[in-house]
Design brief:
The complex is a heterodimer of chains A (about 325) and B (about 625).
Chain A lengths: L1 H27 L5 H6 L5 H10 L6 H13 L5 E2 L4 E2 H36 L4 H15 L2 H15 L17 H35 L2 H8 L4 H38 L5 H11 L2 H29 L6
Antiparallel strand pairs in A: 1-2
Helix pairs in contact in A: 1-12, 5-6, 5-8, 5-10, 5-12, 6-8, 7-8, 7-10, 8-10, 9-10, 10-11, 10-12, 11-12
Chain B lengths: L1 H9 L1 H19 L36 H37 L1 H15 L3 H12 L3 H28 L2 H8 L4 H37 L11 H8 L8 H28 L1 H4 L11 E2 L14 E12 L2 E13 L4 E5 L6 H8 L8 E10 L2 E2 L5 H7 L4 E4 L3 H4 L6 H10 L6 H14 L5 H4 L9 H13 L5 E5 L7 H18 L2 E6 L2 H7 L2 E6 L2 E7 H6 L4 H8 L49 E3 L2 E3 L9 H4 L1
Parallel strand pairs in B: 1-5, 4-9, 4-10, 7-8, 8-9
Antiparallel strand pairs in B: 2-3, 2-5, 5-6, 10-11, 11-13, 12-13
Helix pairs in contact in B: 1-10, 2-3, 2-10, 3-4, 3-6, 3-8, 3-10, 4-6, 5-6, 6-8, 7-8, 8-9, 8-10, 9-10, 15-16, 15-18, 16-18, 18-19
The chains are: A mainly alpha (about 325), B alpha/beta (about 625).
Chain lengths: ~325, ~625
């Protein structure tokens, strides 16, 4: 197992490398030069040229890339000109908030999605199945930002059950209960779409598995139906579900940007949108590379989980 | 195409989605012709008019612009951008996928590495990065959304192309000297189009959502031009005071995406042949029972008595009579063989006993199955569940498919016991080891933590037998347990079963298509054909002098050792399909002795001194007399 984890970690190196190349190339496409963007339209040509030199932008593209990559590898993502602080500090602080939001949403969508899918499959064509199928269809069709706005309107403004926005109360203790009450609505809004996708996939994976011979064997030996569904069928269906959980984790992580805007959540997505609007290139680069790298690492964890579930995978 | 549309329209939800979508598209198309206010003219004197006020059906926004007009123009824009993004992603993605799949090798490797790299990004993050580079704007948002969807299309279409690229018609085209470009356009593309359509129909909703999302963030359409996403984004500041300005565009996005999703599901179902037949339905915990006729009286024959059992498969409007009035019985310590070709109903008979016939489509429509005198057909599931494995246990054919692949064999054995008795795990482990030893698996202490795929076929089947023995059942129903094994292993398994029968007094119902196996193990044998018993009696008597022509033919199929010169006689023709059986003898079509009378009326199973046969002109009529 340890060998397998090491092997997967090593195989991630070229992917991480590729990610930096893609991000760098996308940023290199930017029309005009960043120095003008930073200094504004009224900058003197001398100042622009100086800044370009300071930023290393007068060097050839390949050289620029390797300088940038080398700096990243020692943890230097540069300095955000808009915030005037190191990119890494800002990203780490923001990513923490995103991780709380996306992590909670991911746990919610995994649990709700799998349970809904299993219940739906176990009662195929029954009332429960139809109800779940309809709710799931609604869930995957509603824009998360619209859902979030409606939730604010209903639960926060009308019912006053939760705060309207933010991560912490402006006055008062920053304790767990404050966090939970601030987190509930955004996490739910973020989880809905992924829940729908996971529920759909779980349902069809379960239907596929329930027709297998080993399910009949389980029934033939007298395993109660609950055990047949939740132990035998779900375990086998998880082989198909886990990779989708990995993909959905990416959706939740990056889809958090909408929710962070709607709920004023101080996460990395909101930071990126601000940075894009201000053309704060280094911050965008650093943020995107950092989040994408975290996602790659997370996907390795998914693969490892898969290999632990399925002994047939050669480790 | 017409068949496809008909199939699509039969799906009511897809039809509803299609109609809604059609209305939305029509409204968007004729928006310039409608008597609407100018969507971009601000009138701050009339800001935030509520819906249904005069002159503004849906009210006005924070700048006093007419919401209905803005909604229709915004819908127009959102649809256009969404469709355009889908077309671009599909075209480029398909081109990349076809090239990678068609040329294969290095080209494929290189392209797919790049695609994988793009897919390593969280989807929306990549779109944000692209917009960051190109700058905010609707056209740039369109490019970003299209780009992040290209890998999805490329990967799907590459998969299909790889499957097609080496088919005969492509090879033929290549040999006839066609250029690669022409082969791709005339041979590959037409076969790939359905996949592109499915992929588009399932992703276009996403793309509309994503472009709306980018506009919502202020990175898409720029004021005063507005699509649905930027309408929602602008309305957000007035969410609490004037919520309808948010609700109007939000609901419109919901309606559009939901209609597209319904339609997309319909398209996928109509194009995917596996889903069409409704093959994806799960079997329930016990077979459905819908018994219309009277329940036969118990006759007190043996421990397990099957009486006039009828099990059918109801598929759409067709009724397949898998078994039609089968009666059998077995005593403790006795082995009954059931023999027949595939499709003769022998497995269905066996599975009906404990309600294990997959349902849907299976339905038990008549007869009784008595265990120790009490009828099991229609018994509550709870009762049936308690008896499964404890009183009547099963051994199935292919042990690789019938053991759970993700549990250790020991755990599967322990579970079999724990389903009926609560025992500690230490006790369970001890029992499991004893069971493995009883079926002569060497080194059971170690083997207990093997997964099924780590064992040989013979070992797996021993585990299957151990599992059947776990709760000391009275009856074991073995459904072709040796068919998937090679001959030496087969002999070992048969010897094991015979031994267990003698030492434990088990009643065994042994299902097979092989008379050699029957001769080795069974006291009595029942021959099945087209869902009915055609001959029954003591094994030796039937082997010596088969009475039904079908039995004789079936026996002729077995090669005998030492008589290698005899021709292996296959039975001409195929067994009849059981949804439309001929009247009279079902075997008449394939029988060399058949006469007009055979095709007349129903032929009864005639009992005579321990034997029974369903034939008007049996072979060896004086078989008993000769003995």
């Amino acid at each position: 197992m340890a060998g397998y984890i090491l092997k997967r970690l090593l195989s991630a190196i070229p992917v991480l490398f590729g990610i930096t190349v893609i991000v760098f190339l996308i940023m290199a496409l930017i029309p005009g030069d960043p120095a003008t963007a930073i200094l504004g339209a009224y900058a003197t040509p001398e100042n622009v040229a100086k800044l370009n030199r300071d930023l290393g932008l007068d060097k050839p593209l390949a050289q620029q890339y390797f300088i940038w990559l080398g700096n990243i590898l020692i943890g230097d993502f540069g300095t955000s000109f808009a915030l005037n602080r190191p990119v890494l500090d800002e990203v780490l602080e923001r990513f923490n908030a995103t991780l709380i939001l996306a992590g909670t949403a991911f746990v919610l969508c995994s649990i709700f999605g799998i349970v809904a899918g299993v219940v739906s499959a176990a009662n195929q064509y029954g009332l429960g199945d139809k109800a779940i199928t309809f709710v799931v269809l609604l869930g995957i069709s509603i824009p998360s930002f619209f859902l979030g706005m409606m939730m604010i309107l209903f639960f926060a403004v009308n019912l006053r059950m939760f705060p309207v926005s933010g991560m912490w109360p402006i006055y008062g203790a920053r304790d767990l209960s404050a966090l939970i009450s601030h987190l509930t609505l955004p996490a739910l809004a973020l989880a809905v779409v992924a829940t729908g996708v996971i529920a759909r996939l779980t349902r069809s994976a379960m239907l596929e598995v329930l027709r297998q011979d080993y399910i009949r064997t389980a029934r033939a030996k007298g395993v109660p139906e609950r055990g047949v569904i939740w132990r035998h069928a779900l375990k086998a269906a998880m082989v198909a579900i886990i990779p989708v959980l990995g993909i959905q984790a990416g959706f939740v992580l990056s889809g958090a940007v909408y929710i962070e805007i709607v709920f004023q959540w101080p996460g990395v997505g909101r930071m990126l949108v601000d940075a894009i609007l201000k053309r704060d290139i280094l911050l965008v680069q650093g943020g995107v590379v950092f989040v994408a790298a975290c996602y790659v690492i997370f996907n390795i964890a998914v693969d490892v989980a898969q290999s632990m579930l399925d002994p047939r995978i050669k480790t | 195409m017409i068949a496809f549309l008909r199939l699509l329209s039969r799906n009511r939800l897809a039809l509803a989605g299609g109609i809604v979508m059609l209305c939305v598209v029509l409204l968007a198309l004729i928006a310039p012709l409608l008597p609407l206010a100018d969507p971009d003219v601000t009138n701050t004197a009339h800001r935030f008019k509520t819906p249904f006020t005069e002159g503004a059906l849906l009210g006005t926004d924070h700048l006093g612009r007419d919401l209905l007009a803005r909604l229709l123009w915004g819908t127009r824009l959102s649809l256009m951008v969404g469709f355009a993004a889908a077309m671009i992603a599909a075209t480029i993605g398909a081109a990349i996928g076809i090239i990678a799949g068609y040329f294969g090798g290095r080209t494929d490797n290189l392209i797919m590495r790049g695609v994988d790299m793009l897919m390593a990004f969280p989807y929306i993050l990549l779109a944000l990065a692209i917009v960051a580079a190109l700058g905010p704007g609707l056209f740039n948002a369109l490019i970003a959304v299209a780009t992040v969807n290209i890998p999805f299309f490329a990967r799907n279409i590459r998969g299909v192309t790889v499957g097609i690229a080496h088919r005969e018609f492509v090879d033929a085209a290549r040999l006839s000297g066609m250029s690669d470009a022409r082969i791709i356009l005339t041979e590959i593309l037409p076969n790939v189009v359905p996949v592109i359509v499915i992929a588009m129909s399932t992703t276009i909703g996403w793309m509309i959502l994503e472009t709306a999302g980018l506009s919502f963030l202020g990175l898409g359409s720029q004021p005063p031009q507005a699509d649905l996403g930027s309408m929602l984004g602008e309305a957000r500041s007035a969410l609490i005071t004037n919520p309808y300005t948010s609700v109007v565009p939000g609901v419109m996005i919901l309606i559009i995406v939901m209609a597209i999703n319904l339609l997309g599901d319909g398209v996928r179902d109509a194009l995917d042949p596996r889903l069409k037949s409704g093959a994806l339905s799960r079997p329930m915990a016990a077979t459905l029972v819908n018994r219309t006729g009277p329940v036969p009286e118990p006759k007190g024959n043996g421990l397990l008595e099957v009486q006039d059992l009828e099990t059918q498969f109801h598929v759409k409007n067709r009724v397949y009579k898998a078994i039609d009035g089968v009666s059998l019985h077995v005593k403790p310590g006795e082995c009954l063989g059931i023999i027949g070709e595939s499709g003769s109903g022998k497995s269905v008979t066996a599975l009906s006993v404990m309600g294990l016939v997959a349902s849907p489509p299976g339905v038990i429509t008549g007869g009784a199955v008595r265990y120790d005198g009490t009828d099991l057909i229609g018994a509550p599931y709870k009762h049936l569940r308690e008896m499964r494995g404890k009183n009547v246990a099963y051994i199935f054919q292919d042990p690789l498919a019938t053991l759970h692949p993700l549990y250790k064999v020991g755990d599967q054995l322990i579970e079999a016991i724990r389903s009926h008795y609560s025992i500690s795990s230490a006790e369970g482990r001890k029992k499991a080891i004893d069971l493995l030893r009883a079926v002569r698996i060497p080194n059971p202490e170690k083997r207990i933590s093997d997964y099924p795929h780590e064992m040989s076929g013979g070992m797996r089947q021993r585990v299957g037998i151990a599992m059947a023995l776990a709760n000391d059942p009275d009856i074991i129903i073995a459904d072709e347990p040796t068919t998937a094994l090679d001959v030496t292993v087969q002999a070992q398994i048969l010897a094991l079963l015979d031994d267990l029968r003698k030492t434990r007094g088990l009643a065994i119902v042994f299902i097979t298509h092989d008379f050699g196996v029957v001769a080795q193990l069974c006291d009595r044998v029942a021959v099945m054909y087209a869902g009915r018993i055609v001959e029954e009696g003591p094994t030796k008597a039937i082997l010596d002098a088969p009475m039904h022509p079908y039995t004789a033919r079936l026996m002729a199929c077995v090669p005998e050792l030492g008589e290698g010169k005899r021709r292996l006689e296959a039975i001409p023709g195929l067994p009849p399909v059981v949804d439309n059986l001929p009247t009279g003898c079902a075997f008449a079509e394939r029988c060399h002795k058949s006469q007009t009378a055979c095709r007349g009326s129903d032929i009864a199973l005639v009992f005579d001194t321990g034997r029974a046969v369903r034939c008007l002109f049996p072979d060896n009529p004086n078989a008993e007399a000769a003995q």
